[in-house]
Amino acid sequence: MATKSTTEMPSVGYGAAILRVIKSFGLLRESWVGMIGAFLVLFWVLVAIFAPWIAQFDPNANILPFAKPGTMAASGHTFWLGTDHMGRDLLSRIVWGARTVLTFAPLATLSAYTVGILMGLMAGYRGGLVDDILSRISDIILSFPVLVLYIIVIATIGASGFNIVLAITFASSPGIMRIVRGLTLDLRNRDYVAAAQTRGESDWRIMLFEILPNARGPLIVDACLRLGYVIITIGVLGFLGLGLPPPDPDWGGMVNETRQMAMVFPYMTLFPCIAISSLILGFNLLADGLREISLRD
Amino acid sequence: MNDIQEPVLVCKDLCISYYTRAGEIPAVVDFSLTVKPGETIGIVGESGCGKSTVAMAIMQYMGANGGIKSGSITFKGRDLTTLNENELRSIRGSEISMIYQEPFASLNPSLKISTQLMEVPLAHENISKEEARKRSVQMLEDVKLPDPERVMESYPHQLSGGQQQRVVIAMGLLSKPSLLLLDEPTTALDVTVEAGIVKLVGDISKKFGTSQIYISHNLGLILETCDRVFVMYSGEVVEEGTINSLFTWPKHPYTHGLFSCIPLPTTDKNAAPLKPIRGQLPLPFERPPGCYFGPRCDHFKKGLCDKGHFRMENVEGSALDHRVRCLRYKDIDHTKILSPETVRESLEIGKRVLNVDGMKKYYEVKDSSFMAMITGKNTQFVKANEELNFTAHESETVAIVGESGCGKSTFAKVLMGLETGTDGEIRHKGKDISDIEVRDRSTKQIRSLQMVFQNPFDTLNPSHSIGGQISRVIRQFGIETDKKKIFNRVMKLLDTVKLPRDFYFRKPRQLSGGQKQRIGIARAFAGNPSIVIADEPVSALDVSVAAAVTELLMDIQRKHKTTLLFISHDLSVVRYLADRIVVMYLGHILERGTTEEIFAPPYHPYTEALLSAVPIADPEITKRRIVLEGDLPSAMDPPKGCPFCTRCHRKIGDICDNELPRETLVKDRHVIKCHIPIQELSKIEPVIRMPEESERIHVQ
Amino acid sequence: MVLLLLKRIGFMFFTMIVVSIILFMLLETGLTGDPATRVLGNFASDAQKESWRNQHGYNQPVVVRYAKWLGNFATGNLGTSIRYKGPVKDVLLPRLWNTAILGFWTFAIMIPLSLILGVLSGMKEGSLLDRSISIFGILTTSVPEFASAVFFSALFVFGLKWLPGTSSMSGGFEFKQLILPAMVLVVYDFGYVARMTRASMAEVMQSQYVRSAILKGLPYRQVIIRHALRNALIAPFTVIMLQINWLLSGVIVVEFFFAYKGFGALLLEASLNNDIVLLEACAMVAVVVAVGSQTIADIGYTFLNPRIRFT
Question: Subunits with at least 3 CB pairs below 8 A relative to chain B?
């Protein structure tokens, strides 16, 4: 017996777990759609991280109004994308805007997911009255036209980063709850859940360790889609003048401020629109690639 | 059948492959088959052996990634592989029809049965709608469906599983095809319902002269339905012959191995245990050179069996069409294999550990129909368990047998504390646990009552490693707390269930079904339980793997003197391993007693029908055929009197409809719940008759 | 069946009531700030606010105020707009009509287009058409409405000079001015509906009953029309009904961008100008339309699906 014991005790390491995550993203190589998406997302993430080094101007400094793309500034740097009506460098604003959107969108999505997952697990696993109440609440919130809901909420509590995160959490966690609830309803009937129950595990342990990990596939895909959608929402709110208070750069707000001049200076609106569209496209393509891979095996 | 007749279907040297991203996967290799008019051919094999692929190839419906690589399929003189889509369409459904495994999935949920039936003759023949309707109704009558007019106007979901399958069969027969393909047509059905379908299938060729190809994993079913049989293993036919020849003198080691894996009435868990085939089915791209069965074969000879590709050859001194794909079949003497070391001592039965007394479990169901709203009676009770009484002793195996909806799983849930009983007691070692939920039980109680689950693909959490899952059990049961000790404990458990130790690091998806089930057993036995409930632990596994898991389960039980509650629908498995049997129907125990008592008269009429319904893969055993009418009643709306009265073939009158029979003691612990007096029941002939030892020609 | 209908309609009214309570709490109570300050502005004196409160009955108990408020809604008395200095009804109705025109054209183009393309690509999964529609769908849903409005204006207004850049209809109704707003809405929504239709169709095509229909030897057209479409179009029906809800959001952006005098633009104006009475009316109309269409979607789904219809 002792001689047979060649198997060593495993060293528990997070390195292995991280390696696994990287490996599973490596699977993306098999889907070129997903690859393009990942590339776009990665591009904007890098831009956001290195914003201070990429942007050559203060995004809020009024330097030279109505400069055409390629104009040289007094400082010797070039306005590669031109300036807006207040003389602010568009490239710098877009670069810093990436940081804004890539801070608030993941934050809002994360917060919506935390609430949605907890609600969904409770409703799906416990069932009964808990399920009835949570489901009715989410039905009611979901029956609102989203943007109307945002406008009313933002109009009453005011526009700020925190309030936007709050509003998005409020409006999108019911949708996440529905997905999680559906997955939980399916997963809770699996034999391994029954096995956990019969060995006396607590409800929370079963929800978080036995059920949630097996729901991750569809949830990751949904999270990518939802991130794209949250970015649209933040952009639209900015565009409607309900976004982050000026002057900090925000892509939607930039379009709003300059669209009256689009007739004469189309580049002022065009560039922020390209920026936001490409980032959303990145997340949507990534989601599509991930789904394709998950369906394969 | 007459040999001069032109064969209906000839498959010659057929090779079928699937093309995937990983490359070409040969699914079927070198397959030849001839079907004569009126003949029923059986194709038998374990999952993944290519039997369904053959059926799809005959229908010429291979999907986008499958294709016939070489060979021909000739149907009435035309090679099907050369036909275009239009020509195929005129053959499909009119000359060749197919019946599928899941009747519900193959019927369109949003079309009435009448539409789905009538469109078959309308598409193939130039007839009027009235004519098509008349013929459909007639056909529904021919497949013995009560009230065909009502069935015509129904949607599929309004019919029961057995009725749906009859509708699908009627649909297949509507334009009088020459060939009918049946792909596991009864696998999704209950045994007593299956028996009815099997009888129907048997009558078809007599009545319509249709040739049939019957695909199944169940040798017993093949025996009951077919004239000739093909045994497939890993994409090739390893043996073919007439039923009599092949079932009496199996030549290929695989065929022989299969017979040793199924619990026939001649096997016994102590004197003549099952002999599992070692190893597992190779994946298509892992097939060895030479004989595909080589690595699992006891008669494998190096240098001979691992080279080249073998052809089928005629078996010398046997019927003309008994052919086998084995080079050594002449050298193998199957009579010699039984080694005496496999004979086991029978176990001493210990003291009583479980006492179920008047246990009841009702579920409350809200009735939301309009009538219930008006009458105000909007809660109904589903009586899942009604007055259960039985006991189990240490080292004893008690089997709970019944079809779907009989309440056997509900009982398991109450016992495990996942549900609480409505009334009565379940005493485990003297303590009533029927109304203590699992979260309120002590660790000691929890770990002494464990369960092995049914579905191997569900029993382990796919997100966690094997080692992690077993470790968690040990920690949760408080057996060990030290990491190192837990690890050693897991290693020991892996040894116990005969799995390699490095499975510790594997994820469930890297394991085969049988291996997962072994882990499930290890998990249940981790805390030395006094009672283990096994809920159909092998019903989802292939026979060769199932035998190994069954033997393992019994070995461990033997070692730990555990009480095993074995839940099953399969009486042959139960006969093999149980000491005592409890027969359930619609929440009631209709009969209970020792295995010998259950298998001999006096029977409860339901036990009698159940015994008759289970197919037995031994041509020398004769059965009395009892086919029950109709389907299982819904547990929501059970009959008022005896639960079995709606289908009983021995019903004696109004008393059956109106009064619930009492338990009658036959002797000792043998109890029958029936209105018919025991003396009457004792006069019934045995259902299964085995020949005397001296009469047997069969070597087993 | 009857009960299901009643239940569904009952829930519709329940939702409307709850929503109205939420609206009332948000806009009419001190929960999110003083309504008097919101209406009169930050510089109003306390005395001014107090007299405003008295005049508009804000000093009464909350429950009484809510009951009155709801009663007014139910009887069609929507109150007076502060900004437009007139009855809300007179402002609201023409705006709603304009949006209805825009919505009609959007749906009239989007539904057939996305259903046909979705069904075609679902029939042959993995085909060139399927792949292109799927990629095109992702592309269009990735561009927010305001961005596609910018792109289309750049192309059709400033580049090709084919279409007018605003749709204010100041010189009377002109169909040309409707094209760009409708186009933006169609393009954004098309991808979603087409992809849902495709998924539903693809699933049905994989089903065993379609396989058994093919193996019954039915003509391909019959397999598609009788067996596949009937089941495949149940899910898109619900999706399309839910698009009415989505459209209510979409029109806000589009009408604002193109200065189209519709309901969405009115709602936005009301909120930006703190015109509470108008905002409440707009929000209630939006919710009634959204919840109503959802109820129809649910009932329709029940009706289309025989497994629920006959139980």
Answer: A, C
Average pLDDT value for residue range B453-482: 89
- CB contacts, 8 Å: B505 with chain A: 10
> Which residues does chain B have within 8 Å of residue A190's beta carbon, measured at their own beta carbons?
458
pLDDT of residue B137: 93
Q: With an 8 Å Cβ cutoff, are A155 and C279 in contact? A: yes
Q: Give the Cα separation of B402 and B568 in Å (integer).
A: 7
Give the pTM: 0.86
Q: What is the pLDDT of residues A138-155, one digit of tens each?
A: 988 888 888 888 888 887
Contact at CB, C158 and A153, closer than 8 angstroms: no
Q: What local confidence, expressed as pLDDT, does residue B640 receive?
A: 84
User: Six-digit token pair at B330?
Assistant: 């002449």
On whether the CB atoms of residues C105 and C182 are closer than 8 A, the answer is yes
Say if the Cβ atoms of C150 and A153 lie within 8 Å: no
- B487 contacts in chain A (CB < 8 Å): 9-10
Mutation target for A interface from C131, C271, C275: give the one with most A CBs within 10 A: C271
Write out residues 139-198 of C within 8 Å (CB-CB) of A. 139, 141-147, 150-151, 153-154, 158, 165
Q: What's the Cα-to-Cα distance from B262 to each of B98, B219, B476, B566, rounded to whole Å?
A: 28, 9, 37, 17
Banded pLDDT at A12 (limits 50, 70, 90)? very low
pLDDT digits (tens, 9 = 90+) for B28-82: 988 999 998 888 999 998 888 888 889 989 988 887 788 888 888 998 888 888 8
* Chain B residues lying within 8 Å of C212, measured CB to CB: 98, 100, 106-107, 168
CB contact under 8 A, C146 and A143: no
d(CA A40, CA B618): 66
Distance, in Å, from the CA atom of C117 to the CA atom of C194, rounded to the nearest integer, reads: 7
- Give me the pLDDT at residue A146, please: 86
Which of A140, A147, A236 is closest, CB to CB, to C18? A140
- Interface check C259 vs A, CB under 8 A: no
Q: Between C212, C217, C304, which is nearest B89 by CB?
A: C217
Enclosing H/E stretch for B215? strand B211-216
Q: What is the DSSP letter of C159?
A: I
Q: What are phi and psi of B35, to 5 degrees?
A: -115, 125
Contact residues on chain B for C222, CB-CB shorter than 8 A: 119, 123
Residue B189 has pLDDT above 50, yes or no: yes
Predicted local distance difference test score (pLDDT) of residue A17 = 62
Question: Which value, to the nearest 10 degrees, does the dihedral of the CA atoms of residues B465, B467, B469, B470 take?
Answer: 160
Q: Find which of A29, A192, A193, A219 to mutate to test the B interface (most B CBs within 10 Å of its CB).
A: A192
pLDDT at B700: 43
A195/B451 touch (CB, cutoff 8 Å), yes or no? yes
Q: How big is chain A by its Cα radius of gyration, in Å? A: 23
Gap between the Cα atoms of A273 and A97, Å rounded = 12
* Nearest one of B190, B148, B186, B195 to B167, comparing CA atoms: B148
Mean pLDDT computed over every residue of chain A:
84
Is beta strand B588-594 parallel, antiparallel or unpaired with respect to C80-81? unpaired
Per-residue pLDDT, averaged over C107-123, amounts to: 92
Say if the Cβ atoms of C217 and B120 lie within 8 Å.
yes
Cα torsion B574, B577, B581, B584 to 10°: value is -30
Write down the mean pLDDT value for chain C.
Answer: 85
pLDDT band at B358 (very low <50, low <70, confident <90, very high): confident
Residue B602: cis peptide before it, omega within 30 degrees of 0: yes
